[in-house]
Task: inverse folding
């Protein structure tokens, strides 16, 4: 019995050690009809009270060699910890979505690469803190020209 309790405790500690983070997915992944036309959805993980997390997002882009930032609305789902992002940035240029969040005393960040057909999961980066300006710039530079057309 003690061994079972120790294994359960080890699993619980490992789950808590993961910390607060984001997971992204397609709009259909949320199974929420209101998000059917969303650019992408994301959820928070590692937050004991997801309804109390604070989340913000901006679209960061380069349009005709000029740098742009567009504040985005983060729309919550009826399910705590699940959110949607809709495209409200121009379709021309190269763009990433910068997600920032806090839960209790933990932080999380993500840079979600945007391509011609939506978000690019493989190029997206996830952090245990907000992304730095240099990390955002590096991802924008790495995106192909005309990435959102």
Result:
């Amino acid at each position: 019995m003690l061994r079972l309790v120790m294994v359960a405790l080890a699993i619980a500690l490992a789950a808590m050690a993961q910390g607060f983070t984001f997971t992204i997915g397609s709009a259909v992944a949320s199974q929420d009809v209101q998000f059917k036309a969303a650019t992408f959805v994301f959820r928070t993980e590692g937050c004991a009270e997801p309804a109390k997390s604070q989340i913000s997002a901006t679209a960061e882009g380069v349009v005709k060699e000029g740098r742009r930032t567009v504040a985005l609305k983060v729309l919550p789902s009826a399910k705590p910890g699940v959110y949607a992002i809709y495209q409200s940035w121009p379709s021309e240029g190269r763009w990433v979505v910068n997600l920032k969040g806090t839960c209790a005393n933990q932080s999380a960040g993500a840079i979600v690469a945007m391509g011609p057909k939506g978000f690019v999961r493989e190029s997206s980066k996830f952090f245990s803190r907000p992304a730095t300006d240099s990390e955002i710039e590096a991802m924008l530079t790495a995106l192909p020209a005309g990435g959102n057309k």
Q: What stands out?
A: Confidence is low (pLDDT under 50) at residues 4-16.
